[in-house]
Specification:
This protein is an alpha+beta fold. Helix content is 54%, strand content 22%. The protein is built from 6 helices and 6 strands, in the order αβββααβαββαα. Helix 2 packs antiparallel against helix 6. The longest helix has 21 residues.
Length: 184
Amino acid sequence: MLPYLIALTIFLGIVGLLLAPVSLKFDSALRSLQVRWMGLSISMRLAGKKPRKLKERPQRERKHRIGAIGATLFKDRDVIFELLQRGYHLVIDVVRSLSIRELQANFSTSDPMWNGVLYGIFSGIHFDNVDLSVNFQNINSVKGWFQLYPYKLIKVAAGVLIRLPYRRIVRAALDIRRAVRVTH
């Protein structure tokens, strides 16, 4: 009886973890991101990072390598197009699984005419919990609060992972690796 009780407790715990929403809050003015899940909260300030310096390679070697990779990718373009299409659908499905609790966005351009055009466009857009506005002060900001349920994300990821053409992906990756080695 005790093993069944332990298994039931573990199962209910896993179900509880998957059904508890993950809350994401983002504020571009403060450059902050907050993630909450099951009473745990992580807050971080998002600062701009300095771009790292890339190693310089001789231009000739780089051209040959890019040409070899490009030719191999062109040969396997059906795999690439399929991966791009599935990636696009993955992004769309993840966005659809998000629940928008609150979204405030203030936009502005340096041109007053375009600000007026944006004002006209945004005045006709009405969604629940979404506030789009133009501020005419050349200040852009976005503040949002989203919820995501882990089981929906797992469902979307599993749907994509099940349908991937793994053999063709591995074959294309090996062809690219061979092409890079030949140009070395």
